[in-house]
Design a protein that fits this description.
The protein is an alpha+beta fold. It has a single domain, classed as Anthranilate synthase. It has eight helices and 17 strands. Strands 1, 2, 8, 9, 10, 11, 12, 14 and 15 form a nine-stranded antiparallel beta sheet that branches. Strands 3, 4, 5, 6, 7, 13, 16 and 17 form an eight-stranded antiparallel beta sheet that branches. Helix 1 packs across helix 6. The longest helix has 19 residues. The N and C termini lie far apart (43 Å). 41% of the residues are buried.
């Protein structure tokens, strides 16, 4: 707790002084890192408007991509545990994730430079992330969040209509919108849903996907920069990759997943001295000694079917290199 407070105080101080910083934190909240300009040799990053690196020309292509996911039987055991908690009323949406061992001819830095995504992060000798999901954005005193829930293979006939009319996906998205609305209400006023369940197309090395998002906004107080650390921490972990109710759901996640997420499903933030852009650290590959592990997941509700949920975590094991 003291370590977290020290980081919060540091971020608040930088915000008050209008000094830029980059901040990343893991899902468990144990490994916060703060970088200021000139201190970023170990991290490369990109947002839609800003980056801290010059893109390298990589004279290689993605040739090898082999996956070794957890078995369906192993996945099903945890799925049943989660469903029991859902039926008991302990949670009504839980983002369940699992690791998949991968083998590829590319290293993490090569994947970083070759991939195309709104947000990219490469922490040297640790992980690469190419995230399509915003955590929060702050522009001119307005905070916005864009929860992403719902994924379907774009090659399926009538894929857009199927995902938008799927009752399980609708219920899941409604739940996460309510959760994010509540999270923003902790730090902002006039919180409102501006755009509901719109589609975005993502190109990958495996297939193309449709993903469903919404937009929620609110108004921050004038002095928000001097409280920027407190603001970020009050909304962690991100609702879209934990569930609802958040506190109890996180406890169930720790029992069901049987591994440590690490920086996967944590957040990355860039503060320019006034405005903030950030992403959820999903679509993520981690280096573990000489092995690579891809971490992926999906939301479980009372309407979830185990075969479809298992298939979803496999569909999300991709790199946006085409």
């Amino acid at each position: 707790m003291q370590k977290s407070q020290n980081i919060i105080d540091k971020l608040n101080s930088l915000g008050k002084q209008g000094k830029p910083f980059v901040f990343i934190i893991d899902f468990e909240g144990n490994l916060p890192l703060v970088f200021q300009p000139g201190e970023t040799d170990s991290i490369l990053w990109k947002t839609p408007q800003k980056s801290n690196f010059t893109k390298k020309k990589i004279n290689k292509q993605l040739i090898k991509w082999e996956m070794q996911p957890v078995s369906f039987e192993e996945y099903k055991k945890s799925f049943r545990l989660i469903r029991t908690h859902i039926y008991n009323g302990d949670t009504y949406l839980l983002n369940f994730t699992q690791p998949t061992k991968i083998e590829t001819n590319l290293n993490l830095e090569e994947i970083f430079h070759l991939s195309s995504a709104p947000y990219k992060v490469f922490l040297k000798d640790s992980f690469v992330c190419f995230s399509p999901e915003i955590f929060v954005k702050i522009e001119a005193g307005k905070i916005s969040s864009y929860p992403m829930k719902g994924t379907i293979d774009a090659s399926i006939k009538n894929a857009k209509e199927l995902i938008l009319n799927d009752s399980k996906e609708v219920a899941e998205h409604n739940t996460i919108v309510d959760l994010i609305r509540n999270d923003l209400s902790l730090v902002a006023e006039n919180v409102s849903l501006e755009k509901f369940r719109y589609l975005e197309r993502i190109k990958t090395n495996q297939n193309n996907l449709w993903q469903v998002s919404s937009k929620i906004t609110g108004d921050l107080p004038d002095n928000y920069p001097e409280k920027i650390g407190s603001l970020i921490y009050s909304m962690l972990p991100a609702g879209s990759i934990s569930g609802a109710p958040k506190k109890k759901t996180i406890q169930i996640i720790q029992k069901a997943e049987h591994y440590t997420r690490g920086y996967y499903t944590g957040v990355f933030c860039y503060f320019d001295g006034k405005n903030l852009d950030s992403c959820v650290l999903i679509r993520y590959i981690e280096k573990q000694k000489d092995k690579l592990v891809y971490k992926s997941g999906g939301g479980i509700t009372f309407k979830s079917e185990v075969e479809k949920e298992y298939d979803e975590i496999l569909k999300k094991v991709y790199v946006p290199i085409v």
